[in-house]
Amino acid sequence: MGERVCFSPCGNYLVHFNVSGRLRIWETETSYLKQEFTPGSHLSSPCSCVAWISVYNSPVKSKKKKRKFGERQVLLLVLGTDAGQIYFFNVAEGEVVASLKEHNRPVSSITAAAGTDLYSSAENNIVQWDIPEKKVKRKWKCNGNVCNMLISDDNSILLTSLSSTVLCWNVETHTILRKFEGHKSNIIGLSMGVSPAGEKYVFSAAAEERLVNVWNITNTNLNKPVAMFTLPDVPSGISSNISSNGLVTFVAVCKRGSLSVYSLQLNGQCSKPLKPKTTVLVTPDESSTKKKTEVVPIIAGKVVGKGVKIAFGSSPFISCETIDLNTNDSELYLIRQDPRRSTKKKEESIKKVKSVETSSHVDYLSSASANSVSLKRDRLVLENEEKVTMESLLEKMNLSTKNIPSGDNLAHLLVQGLNSQDRDILRKVLLTPNENKIRSTVESLPAQAVLPLLKILVNLIQGRTFTSQVAAMWLQAVLRIHVSQLLADENCSSVIAPLMGLVESRLSCLGPLYQLKGRLNLLLDQATSSSVPRKPVIEFEPLLVYQDNDSPLNSNCLLEEEDDDDKENDEDDDRWTDLLNEDMSVESINGDDDGDEDSSHESEDSNENNDDEMEESSS
Questions:
Q1: Cβ(325)–Cβ(308) under 8 Å?
Q2: From edge to edge, which strands make up the β-sheet containing 187-194?
Q3: How many whole angstroms separate alpha carbon 371 and alpha carbon 135?
Q4: Rounded to an integer, what distance in angstroms lies between the CA atom of residue 221 and that of residue 228?
Q5: 425, exposed or middle or buried, with CB in 10 Å at 0-12, 13-18, 19+?
Q6: How many CB atoms neighbour CB 62 within 10 A?
Q7: Fewer Cβ within 10 Å of end Cβ, the chain: N or C?
């Protein structure tokens, strides 16, 4: 069996035990861990079940006073083990006061009402114990392994769950009165209540179902549930109470950490399953109520009067609280501090070691500047012979940082400026345009100072021309030397994002700027060329002209041949014009009398004559 959490019948105590056998008990009013108990045989036989019982006990006679006190009621915690033993643990004394042994198998369930006998089950047997005599009173067999048991307040009816079935036993006759079947998985919780009319009701919840059934034991004609409650998740515990006016208050704790509250007026059979009236959630802060992400789990709940006692957290950090159910809200958020976190804060407050508080306005001295500063520590006394305050002494000290160290490495001074956020130190270090000094300083920087330096450089590169140029030199050195660290850092992208936008915006202006520069250069060249007087062009005659007379193609021959060709062309043109004129005159004289055939013959003859003349002229 796994972990188990349950309240005492009075609601003043909360018990929690786990598989290892460790038992813890809290006071619900103060959330104080009252007892912590580990049985000696927990390694071989851990606890398998637990139940609360109130018994009357007579204290031991006092030898000194020789008088007997009256009986008083003592709250005991009954523990069943895997070895078959049953232990009685006294909450007030914090120790085991008695033990019983009858079962040879692990004890599966235990139940007891106030002032009644104790009932235990193991395998197929149910045992009724006489607590004062510490012996078996009755014993009978059942049809299977009992998972849960519950005794009525009048000690007349015993409820047992066999897997998915609920059995109602008559304690006197050991006979089964009623048998309820309706679940499909193992039953993990039983609760009982009595109405003002005397009718007894049973509430049963299964491990893998989101429905809680309500059964009527008194009315033998009803074999089906009289009501059903729908759950938002599978349950881990239930509790119920029926008031004097017949109003049923039922709560169910779900495994996801919520508490569902139901209200029902007993008046016949319900046709539809009932939804929760209110869902209670515990959150550590107000933001979780909107996001519904972080929830402190509720692990137990019990109806006490008109309220509900809840336990939230995780063992051993558990807190208890009583809440009022007089609300009409469908969801009730309780903003409470996580018990685990509150415990850590208490431990931190107990520690004696505290961190030293330093002021942000600090001036740091480097080794080079310290040598140039002369500190005079003369004792000054005022007129009334009172000592000068520390503030006045510090004002008289020259702590200026005008002189930058002459070394090639400014890493130490740069780290001081980053830690103190001193603008003077940062300005005088970062405005150094020496590339060698920048490279050696960046190489000597510690890893934790790279990201703060990058943030400052991003701001400087957005400034004026000289500042942006020097910041670009520092940025280039940082990206080259510490690129692996920046790639591994998740916060680097958010720091460089403004720089990327700045670079893109400036690159978009680069093309128009180059065009403007080219046009301005052209205008300036034209302006300068027009203002300067032009030099006159001087023609120079050749000093020597050489002509080769032996060449067949001399200039005179060429000129003569060109003249002859022009003359021949002119003669040919004159002949063509004469021929055309003659043809025109012949056609006009003949007219239309010769007909089409004569004109065609004549045109052919004229064409032949023209061809002959052209041949003669060409020859």
A1: yes
A2: 187-194, 200-206, 211-216, 227-230
A3: 94
A4: 18
A5: buried
A6: 10
A7: C
Range 231-268 burial, b when 16+ CB lie within 10 A, else e: beebbbbbbbbbeeeeebbbbbbbeebbbbbbebebee
Question: Rounded to whole angstroms, how far apart are CA atoms 9 and 75?
Answer: 10
Whose CA is closest to 116, among 72, 55, 174, 171?
55
Cis upstream peptide for 316 (omega within 30°):
yes
Q: C-alpha distances in angstroms, 478 versus 442, 448, 454, 469?
A: 6, 13, 8, 14
Buried b (16+ CB within 10 A) or exposed e, 136-174: eeeeeebeebbbbbbbbeebebbbbbbebbbbbbebeee
Two tokens, residue 392:
């006045």
Residue ranges of domains in the chain: 367-501
Q: What angle do CA 129, 191, 215 make, to 5 degrees?
A: 115
pTM of the model: 0.54
Distance CA 84, CA 330 (A): 45
Task: Give pLDDT tens digits for 360-412.
Answer: 555 544 444 444 444 444 444 444 444 556 666 666 554 444 444 455 678 88
Give the C-alpha separation, 173 to 409, whole Å.
98
Q: How is residue 290 written in tokens?
A: 């909107």
What is the enclosing helix (H) or strand (E) of 239?
Answer: strand 235-242
d(CA 474, CA 431): 9
- The CA distance from 422 to 426, in Å, is 6
In the chain the first and final C-alpha atoms are separated, in Å, by 137
Amino acid occupying residue 568: E
Whether 441 and 409 have beta carbons less than 8 Å apart is answered as yes
Residues paired with 51 in a beta bridge: 78
d(CA 319, CA 237): 17
- Strand 85-90 with 95-101, pairing: antiparallel
What is the spatial distance between Cα 358 and Cα 469, in angstroms, rounded to a whole number? 35
Helix (H, G, I), strand (E, B) or coil at 457: helix
Single-letter amino acid code for the residue at 472: A
pLDDT digits (tens, 9 = 90+) for 174-189: 889 999 998 889 999 9
The answer to whether 213 and 231 have CB atoms below 8 angstroms apart is no
3-state secondary structure (DSSP) of residue 608: helix
Q: What are the residue ranges of helices labelled H in 461-594? A: 465-481, 483-488, 492-508, 510-531, 555-590
Q: What is the pLDDT of residues 406-448, one digit of tens each?
A: 556 788 888 888 888 888 888 888 887 788 888 888 888 888 8
- In contact, 245 and 260? CB cutoff 8 Å: no
3-state SS assignment for residue 235: strand
Q: State which H helix or E strand residue 122 sits in.
A: strand 118-122
Distances (CA, A) of 236 to 208, 278, 279, 365: 10, 18, 15, 66
Q: Which of 204, 202, 203 is nearest to 219 (CA)?
A: 202
246: left (phi over 0), alpha (psi -120 to 50) or beta: left
Q: How far apart are CA 303 and CA 322, in angstroms?
A: 9
Residues 181, 545: Cα–Cα separation, whole Å: 137
3-class DSSP state for residue 427?
helix
3-class SS of residue 376 = coil
Quick one: how far is CA 130 from the chain centroid?
A: 58
Residue 576 exposure: Cα atoms within 13 Å on the Cβ side: 9
